[in-house]
Design brief:
- The chain has about 160 residues and is mainly alpha-helical.
- It has one domain (about 1-135).
- The protein is built from 9 helices and 2 strands; from the N terminus they run ααααββααααα.
- The protein has helices at about 1-5, 10-20, 25-35, 45-50, 75-80, 85-90, 95-105, 110-130, 140-145; strands spanning about 55-60, 65-70.
- A hairpin with a 2-residue loop joins strand 1 (about 55-60) and strand 2.
- Helix 6 crosses helix 8 (about 110-130).
- The radius of gyration is 19 Å and the shape is globular.
């Protein structure tokens, strides 16, 4: 894998963008890029989540309200490859750690919150790959501190 990536300078740079995420190794980044063909056929984050099998499926019929689960109909290689990086990310990545700790008490099992982290990690990888950017750990903080435009009231004369 390393030889193939090092032989293509453009691909090597893209893999470095993904490796900048705390918890993501070369093997996991290269596998996700390889399994998605470099995100060439993926046009949105929602489509990527569905392709990987992280889309949520409701089980309902009439008045019956069942549980919600991920579909698992997508690419199992991506899901299995993101398991260990997500476990590492909840320890070392401050953004994903907060996300995991917020979800964990509300879920019946901690693995459900971990799957949510896996989905978020995959979408983060997609975003960085498409935008040609390195991971910015202060992105969430900056996003929360952005001034929101004030709504101006139009007073009737």
């Amino acid at each position: 894998m390393k030889e193939l990536v090092e032989g293509n300078q453009h691909l090597a740079q893209k893999i470095h963008y993904l490796e900048s995420i705390p918890g993501v190794s070369f093997i996991s980044a290269a596998t996700v890029v390889g399994e998605t063909c470099g995100f060439n056929e993926i046009s949105s984050a929602k489509q990527l989540a569905s392709y990987a099998g992280y889309d949520v499926v409701l089980k309902e019929s009439g008045t019956y309200r069942g549980s919600t689960k991920i579909s698992k109909k997508g690419n199992s290689h991506i899901r299995s490859m993101l398991h260990m990086p997500s476990m590492t990310a909840v320890r070392v990545n401050p953004t994903l750690k907060l996300f995991y700790n917020r979800l964990k008490p509300n879920k019946a099992k901690p693995i459900v919150a971990l799957v949510a982290v896996q989905r978020k990690l995959l979408l983060l990888m997609y975003s960085l790959y498409k935008k040609n950017e390195y991971y910015d750990p202060r992105f969430e903080i900056k996003k929360q501190q952005e001034p929101k435009p004030l709504l101006h009231r139009i007073e009737a004369i």
